[in-house]
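Training component of the fellowship. As part of building independent skills, the fellow (R.M.) carried out the full modelling exercise for a liganded target. The chosen ligand was S-adenosylmethionine. The inputs are recorded below so that the supervisory panel can assess the work.
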Amino acid sequence: MSAPPSATPPSLAQSLHFWARNASNESALLRTSLGLGLFDALPVRGEGTPVKVDALAGKVGASVRGVRSLVELLVCLELVHMDEARGLSVTKPVATFLKDAAFRERLREAARWWSPIGQLEEAVKTGEPVTCEGQRWDVLEHYRRLFLEPVPAPSPEAEDFFDRFARSAARTWLLVTAGRLGLLEQLATGEKDEAALRAATGASERGLRRVLEVLAHLGLTRTEGTTSGFTDEARQVLDGKALPYLLRSFSVSAQYWEALERLEETVRHERFILDLKDAEVSRRFYADNSNQITAVFASHFQLSRRAAATLAQVRPLAGASVLDIGTGSGVWGVAFARTEPTAHVTYFDQEVVLQQARRNVEQLKALGQARFWPGNLFTQDFGEAAYDFIILPQVLNVLRPESLPDMFRRVARALKPEGILVIAEYVLHERRDGPLDHLYFGLRRFLTNEGDLLSHSEYAALLADVGLTSTVCLPLPTQELVLAARSGVTLPTQLAPPPRAAA
Ligand SMILES: C[S@@+](CC[C@H](N)C(=O)[O-])C[C@H]1O[C@@H](n2cnc3c(N)ncnc32)[C@H](O)[C@@H]1O
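Fellow's submitted model of the complex:
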């Protein structure tokens, strides 16, 4: 299920993508919004004076940034309406089903299962209820009721809301668990009988059956007698490298589980459960994530090469000095090195992450043009008038909003007078009400004590403050490119065509 509700049901590939990345965010969003009383604090559309986000945060006693990161998603999902003056009200169908006491109780009951669901792996192995906060929870029975014995909701809108609220995260965790048990990998190699699957995964009879029943319900598997395998569609979608890639995405989502469960605490008090501003937590998280970042290297390399080609339209890259800040896998800097063999690239990141970047740069035979610079991007002085291009690829969203002016000041100082700043980011619509994937990404940045996503004009205002008065925003597939420079410097106004497959 993806949103807003559309006439055509999503394909299995689209659903898997959503379950891997955003389904647990969606459940946490709705569970937290309800827990905070956000819907109840808003007037019904057309029946009262719309409320601005600051006032709403005051009403529910929570942080403005936190409430804003929820509300922008609720607006995008069309559960909350935002008028031209940014006044908020709850839509009529939502107000109606939330007044239904029995439905409300179903939501409350479903909300209690987040932690127990996190122990699904144990439940599948033992076939027994799990213990959580001193109580026994029959997670396998919960999955049966949730997916195989649905209770009618008071309206189609209520059913859609319940699905997002209760089942979205449950789908993600089922797939996380099936991945961890090695069940999906077993099924990918062909049909298997129950005994073989139990032996390979350590699952109990009851646990395996339930997982397979729900996977079948999701359209991934089918079982005849005691033999199970992927459906034809699942086989096609999970062919080759697609399954390992998907499993890595699920494992990244799993890292956020507890923080999503406790999102209400974070929105209320800005108390961060997965605090990436803690140096040790950040080191571990990004060291782990750099594998994931490397897994998406090939697709991001398409984007970064296209960005380098776009800049080469207005400025020769020959002999250019390039600084790639928060380089991660190195995918952005190395694209400049590969586009122009005389360009020199400095890769800046945490030491532990640079080890991975070095391997990737070496593989692309660009070590001769490389310098690796370990440091802390929050405090590092990047020098003065030293670089023709500075790249900030997917890194501004790591900085809390109050750190952005200082970051831009250090970066503008390090740019040569004719230099160009290259920001690759998830740039929001001017109304900050989409795109949906960007907003979910933004919610994760908020809950990990990282930054805000901005619109083009919000970036332009901050950049103008440091003298980079000329900006353009060019949409790449999946993210945006904001280019900035001092007045009079020519910036490209359109993207170069996509590069050919070979690097
Ligand atoms: C979201 S990743 C982006 C990676 C890469 N630029 C890309 O587009 O794939 C953010 C990067 O910022 C780095 N980072 C986060 N905090 C940092 C800090 N305090 N100092 C240096 N690098 C940091 C992380 O290690 C990570 O590689």
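The panel noted the following from the submitted structure. The chain has two domains: 12-261, 291-485. Residues 282, 286, 293, 300, 326-329, 331-332, 349-350, 353, 376-378, 393-395, 398 surround S-adenosylmethionine (CB under 6 Å).
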